[in-house]
């Protein structure tokens, strides 16, 4: 499939015959290739798309969008051409709340996802007043080290690291200034996923996603911190595969 949305949507392992798509949303400071291996492992059964936000890699000369609502509006515009078959949404950290806001907008248009898999983020209505985006560069780098989600090679290259900090800071601002606006719960089911030692999300805060759906809720708790998923990729892939297959069967029954 060829579209005019390629700057926003990466499709590393096209699966044209797959019965459904999975749209993946990266964490703050992350980029679409974070999901390269997930796409490979899920193909050809699922056609995996990864959203590439402005301000990073080949889009580094574009301004970072530091507002979740604005970013959600832009992503919805770019995703519409890809919604020609059933789809599910997966997001981690910033990507989880962004995927949620995208799901809200799509459901309002009558485009219901098969489901939302929200990883590494508290329920949208649960407030935390984090201010990492206001730290100086050294403080922000320390925060990246604390969460253990940034590539070691990047952390070891101080010059390169400081080049990407504006992107990281903008993403953190989007995540940390997000304010939930009450509205109808999603009709699609939600799976919450979290690490049991995540310093940014307690298990109780992850369980709060149950309040945002009428379609059923499940919570998966894995050993690990904020980037627990890096150590559980095979299990996560199987979880996604099984969840999408089940929900697709429900739609087709």
TrEMBL record:
Q: Where is the Thioesterase TesA-like domain?
A: 23-244
A GO term, aspect molecular function: hydrolase activity
What InterPro entries does the entry give?
A: AB_hydrolase_fold (IPR029058), TEII (IPR012223), TesA-like (IPR020802), Thioesterase (IPR001031)
Family, according to the entry, reads as follows:
Belongs to the thioesterase family.
The molecule here is called Thioesterase
Give the record's GO biological process terms.
Answer: lipid biosynthetic process
| Annotated SMART domains | PKS_TE
Highest taxon in the source lineage: Bacteria
The cross-references to SUPFAM superfamilies, in alphabetical order and at most eight, read: alpha/beta-Hydrolases
Q: Where exactly are the transmembrane stretches of this chain? A: none
Q: Which Gene3D superfamilies match?
A: alpha/beta hydrolase
Query: Is this entry keyworded Hydrolase?
Result: yes
Keywords of this protein's UniProt record, alphabetized?
Hydrolase
